[in-house]
Design goal:
By secondary structure, the protein is α/β, with parallel strands linked by helices. It contains five helices and seven strands; from the N terminus they run βαβαββαβαββα. The chain has a single domain, classed as Formyl transferase, N-terminal domain (Rossmann fold, 3-Layer(aba) Sandwich), CATH 3.40.50.170.
């Protein structure tokens, strides 16, 4: 039996919680979600799953008999002590082809940069932001009509139609393999990494964007450490 703890929110968090509840050989021993979240709360209550309020998650409040931690649209920082409690560590889903587009606004920036392809990554959490070893990846095309829309509206559509279902598929694949003892960890190639700020910040200035068209200049990821 694979015992999992989930930290998440919103529809995707609920999808992953439902997935884990339905999967044979998986037991959800606890969930962490924001106060008032209408997606995960009713599921946790229905199944009598112990809960922790988002923002309060710590090593002291984590169940101690956990095999795997899962983040599912979670903005909680998983500290070192909390990260080390699950026997196998933590996995999460990021809607980009890591190491490209680390950060919260990965979908918006892929569209803003008019890229033709993006994707999703299930990765192992570490001390860095979206820097852990890669477990599974899948790609999808960014339809041309999305590039003419506002980045926010286009990102929302791409998330709902492609990247969110992809995240559920990849997480299911990861859980099926982990149950069998198959652990995949491929280090990210930092020569290819990018990191973008949140689109919610006013007066975004990306001097590093000027380097995108200069061969060799955007391969060193030391600028965003």
């Amino acid at each position: 039996m694979l015992r999992v703890f989930i930290s998440g929110q919103k529809y995707y968090g609920a999808e992953i919680l439902e997935l884990c509840i339905k999967m044979e050989g998986v037991e959800v021993v606890g969930v962490c979600y924001p106060f008032g979240d209408k997606y995960i709360s009713p599921i946790a209550k229905r199944w009598n799953i112990p809960t922790v309020t988002s923002g309060a998650l710590s090593a002291d409040l984590m169940p101690k008999n956990v095999d795997l931690g899962i983040t599912a649209h979670s903005f909680d920082y998983i500290g070192k002590k909390t990260r080390y409690i699950p026997r196998l560590g933590w996995i999460g889903y990021h809607p980009s082809l890591l190491p490209r587009h680390r950060g919260r606004a990965s979908i918006e920036w892929a569209i803003k940069m008019k890229e033709a392809i993006t994707g999703g990554t299930v990765f192992w959490l570490n001390a860095g932001i979206d820097r852990g070893d890669i477990a599974y990846q899948e790609f999808c095309f960014i339809q041309p009509e999305l590039l003419s829309m506002s980045s926010g509206k286009a990102a929302s559509r791409l998330w709902r139609q492609e990247l969110q279902p992809m995240g559920v598929r990849l997480m299911e694949k990861a859980l099926e393999d982990i149950k069998k003892g198959i652990i995949i960890k491929e280090p990210q190639d930092n020569r290819l990494s990018t990191w973008e700020p949140s689109m919610e910040v006013k007066d975004i200035y990306r001097p590093d964007c000027l380097l995108l068209n200069e061969p060799g200049k955007n391969s060193d990821d030391s600028w965003h450490r």
